[in-house]
Every structure is written in C-alpha cells, then in structure tokens.
Amino acid sequence: MAKTVADFVLDRLAEWGIQRIFGYPGDGINGLMGAFERGDHGIRFIQSRHEEESAFMACGHAKYTGQVGVCLATSGPGAIHLLNGLYDAKLDHQPVVAIVGQQARASLGGDYQQEVDLTALFKDVARDFVQVMTTAEQARHLIDRAMRIALEQRAVTCIVIPNDVQDLPAVPAPPHKKGMMHTGIGAISHSHVPNEDALHNAAAVLNRGKKVAILAGAGALGASDELAAVAQRLGAGVAKALLGKAALSDNLPYVTGSIGLLGTVPSWRLMQDCDTLLLVGTTFPYTEFLPPEGQAAGVQIDRDGRSIGLRYPVEVGLVGDAKQTLAALLPLLKQQTDLDWRHGIEKEVAHWREVVTARAQTRGDRINPQLPFMELSKRLPENCIVSCDSGSATNWYARDVDVRPGMLGSVSGGLATMGCAVPYALAGKLAYPQRPAVALVGDGAMQMNGINVLITVSSRWRDWDDPRFVVLVVNNGDLNLVTWEQRIMGGDPRFADSQCLPDFSYAEYAKLLGLEGIRVTDTDQVAAALDRAFAVDRPALVEVVSDPEIPPLPPHITPKQFSAYIKALRKDAAGGAALRATLKQWWAG
Predict the structure, then answer these.
(1) DSSP annotation string for 508-574
(2) Strands, DSSP E only, in 353-468?
(3) What is the pLDDT of residues 431-453, one digit of tens each?
C-alpha cells in the first residue's frame, strides 16, 4: 500500500525523535489512527480518558524530559477539549505540538457537523504557529516548522489536518519548483552566553552587593551546580519560585525555599532585607513579595529578552541560557568575605525547619494535612518524579516537601489549573518507567479528572520497570484553597454550596481498578501507610482524611488580611475550629 499523508506525518515525527503521542480517537483523525496501526515508525499512541488529559500529559512530558510533547485530537469537540492543557503549556513556556483533525475540505464553510474554525480557536494558545494542511506537499514543512518553532520558542504550535487530506498519497519530497518548501530536521547550534561587556557589567553590580538574594525559577532547572557556586561566591541566599523548586536542593542551609503566599518566612525576609537581587530564569508574578522598588540593585538572566525587567527593574539583563551564563559569570565574581548576611540566612532557615516540623505535628479534629507531606518528604526515593496539583496541596508541597538532587518536580505555574498532577506524573512515568513517580492531589482535583486518569494508570503499569506510582490524596471534603482565599482576602465565610465536595472513597476506587488503595483516618497511621505505598507491587493511592480548618499561613499577613480573616470567622460555622487551629499554628511558629 502506498503511504498516505497520515503515514508520512507519523514517520516525520519519528524522525524528530517523538516516541509517544497522547490523544483520543475520533473520525476527524481516522486516517492518523490507521497510520498508527499499520506503521513501523515506533511511535506509541497513548490513549487518554479525555483530550484535556492528553494535553496535560504532553505538557508534563515536555516539563520532565525537555523534549517536545505531542497531543492529538479529533475535530470540533476533541480539539476544544485540548485547550486547558495547551494553555498550561503556553503559560509555563513548554514545547508542545497539537495535531487536530478537521472535516473534509469540501464541507468547510457549510456549517458541517463538528465544523469549528480551528485556526481562530487556536490562534491565541498557538500564536507562534497554527496552520491548516490543505495539500500533501505541505505535510513536510508544516511538521518541521511546528516542531522547530515549539522547540525554539518554547511554545505551543498547532497543525490542523482535514480528514480527507490525511488519506492523500504522501509527498515526502515536494517537487523542485516555485512555491514549494524543502525543510529539514538538522540540529541548530546556539550561542547561549551574553557578551563579555554584559557579563562584566553584571558582575560589577553583584560584586557591590553586601546582602545578595537570588530567586531561581524554571529557567534555572539543570543549572544546580552553577547556581550553588554563584550563591557560595556571593554569600547569597536562594529562594525558589515553585516551578524552580527542583533547581536547587532544599537541604542546602542557605536555600530559603518557596516564595509568595505559599512561601516561607526566610524567603520573605530574604527579599525584604537584601540590597542586591539576582533573578535566574523566573517571571515570578507576585511583585509584592520581591524587594520594594529601588531597594535592591538587580541583575536578571533569562533566555527570553522579553522577560528582562518584567517584574523588577534591573540594572543589567543577560539574555542567555542560565547554566552557561552562570558558568561564564562565576570567574568574574569576587568571593564575599563578610558572611554575616549568609549566617543570618542560615539561622533563619534552620529555625524555619523547626517551625515547619512543629506545625505539622499539631493536632486537629482530623489529620493535619501538613503531616503526610512531611512524612512523604522523608520517604521520597532517589531520582523520583513529583507532581503537585493546584489547591491547598500546593501549600504543603511548597513548604513541607524537600527536593533533593536528581529529583524532578513540577506544578501548573502560570495557569495554576486544577487537574494536572496525575497526568503529569503519568507522562513522567511513561518517559522514565524505571523512576518512581508521585502525584500530590487535593480531593477537588481528584474528582475533577484524577480519578479518570487512574483508569489509564491501571491499564499501563504492568509495562513499567518499576511499579512505584504513588498518588497522595488530601481528602478534606472542601475546595480548601478557595475557602481560605475567601476568608483572608474577602472576609467571607465558607459558602457550603460552592465549597463542600461530595463524599467519595478514593482508596476503594483505586482497589476497584486493581491498584493498592489505602485510607488513613488516624495520625498515627500516616507513616506506615506511606511505607506500604512504596513497598507494594503496583501503583498505590493513599487517601488521607484531613482537617480543612488548619490554615496555610502566609509568610506575611497584612492588617487588612487579618481584619478580613477575623470578620470571616465570626460568620463561619467552622470559625471556632479554624481559629483554634490558627492559634496552634501560630504558637508552633
């Protein structure tokens, strides 16, 4: 049988190194489904339960591997379902290619069933490149451009392929004539280091600093050694945006941990007291947690020049790769000999660790949600992959889970969408089947789509070299982060109709799927449950029934926030319990 456009598309993606595509079938992509079945391209089709999950897995794959993630959906509803996961990739600057089907060319413009203007639909999320394939001759250059632009711009790109085009005879080499494109896959070599003058200017600013603070983000991932060396040379403390949590080990005494509402007190004080700020690969958005404007001299390193000076006005911006730029900068930096600033940071960090431990051990009406995260942190295997969902679980991941060298970790940063953690972890596990994977999820996100992703886990885990895949579910019966936001920011009590979740037995559901399910209702059972989860011969779900009234205390509380909180508790049916829990947390600190 002669090869079709669909066959060529998969063959070309395989040449680009794609090994798996996440998707869900439909008649808009039947040609591509047929090509999967008959081809020898080596690409595996990973069937999801929903196209949003496909896009999340493509994003998670990109985050954990650094490679392009590819997702596939049919026309109309399938394409629309991809959007949330694609926006997650866009806002976190991840290279993802979306391939979507479309109705036959002759029907377009006729209000045909499932006909949607897909170019318009994807124009924002895939603003760097979205094109419709209308001829077989386009297939080569559209695939090549979508892949290259996704990699180079760290962006989402999209190709729309009408179903009749998929079945056209392939044209691997377009004719050599006017109007034809002849693209290639060849590697690109970049100069990732700013020029010498820029490096010297940056070093001059940093060398003048007596109290240097570093904020590392996702752009610093892979630059741990260089980041640590610069911090040592400058006598600096290092705070981390949540996407950069794995950039540097939390066990280093000068690493203050996360920053922002979910951050630590040492990170808050680091930013408030510094006289010099080095931003490395971050566009952390909450500027109220950075130094007041004019307090600190600034240097910023980012691969995208558009991000320079976006959050803080810096004297010197260095556009380049964080690892290579830090390495080039290091020889120009003077060794800081006055270490009072560093010693103060280390003292703050040591005290904070005591506070976190004490807070996790306070008792509530149910299990303190901080405790399972702290106990999990002690048990995380070497080189594991960790994902965390958006919600109150993010608080405890930020503060109670320590990342060590070799670990991978991620969240939905820019979009902060619920429902990403289990798809992320599954994508990581499929890419690295020999590495343990852990997903940290609230009950809201679990009900949103996590329970469906477990079906995919149950169908695939027997293929893995290491079956350890642990899902920790915080079951507090409440959309807890929003409840606390309503209390602290709006002065409003919990609105039960919007906040309280239906009862669901997550552990029993896991057992129904043939996985290990462990329900924990007693504080003294937490450690043993986690030990069991990592010891069994299959993926495990640990459901911790936790107290929704234990507050995620921010590192700094303004008078306005305190007033709103007290106002909310006076009107809240659970106000007394929340106040008692708050006082316990405050006393522990």
Answers:
(1) HHHHHTTSEEEEE-SGGGHHHHHHHHHHSSS-EEEEEEB-TTS----S---HHHHHHHHHHHHH-TT
(2) 385-388, 408-410, 437-442
(3) 999 999 999 999 999 999 999 99
